[in-house]
Design a protein that fits this description.
mainly alpha, 7 helices
Length: 154
């Protein structure tokens, strides 16, 4: 059973790392600066790093950050095991990502992309304004209609 588990773990990590490289989120600027350690590492390395000492991360997630308490319970200093707040982790990732972005490069890329886009003009006949063309709408033919035939009345 242990052999199967190690083989599956090895396969899982290689596949996840392969797909992470294919769908890389960061630009070249973040990789050059090296500030985003989480983005520069493989996902399997990140998970292994967290799993080496998960107690620190878990204890920080259980801390109650709001002053609002649960009705009927006392204030718990060490945390609530039913409460998980991982916003601090995502705030740190977002902060590192925004610090690593090069604003000049992103603006120039935006303007270059904008130049490549073709402006679409509406398909409108520009010479039809000012009553230069007759405007009409075709209606359906009338069913069961016959033009009057002149009759002589005796």
């Amino acid at each position: 059973m242990q052999k199967v588990q190690t083989r599956i773990t090895l396969f899982r990590n290689t596949e996840i790392d392969k797909w992470q490289r294919k769908t890389q989120v960061t630009t070249g600027a973040a990789a050059l600066k090296g500030r985003l350690h989480a983005f520069n590492q493989n996902i399997s390395d990140q998970v292994a790093g967290y799993m080496r000492d998960p107690s620190r991360m878990i204890n920080r997630m259980y801390l109650r950050k709001s002053d609002v308490g649960v009705f009927g319970e006392g204030k718990d200093v060490e945390g609530d095991p039913e409460l998980i707040d991982d916003s601090e982790f995502y705030h740190q990732l977002l902060k590192e990502f925004l610090e690593s972005c090069d604003t000049g490069a992103s603006e120039s890329a935006f303007y270059a992309l904008r130049k490549k886009q073709h402006k679409k003009r509406k398909l409108v006949d520009r010479r039809a304004s000012k009553s230069r063309k007759i405007r009409y709408s075709v209606h359906e033919k009338i069913a069961n209609f016959m033009a009057p035939v002149p009759m002589t009345v005796p």
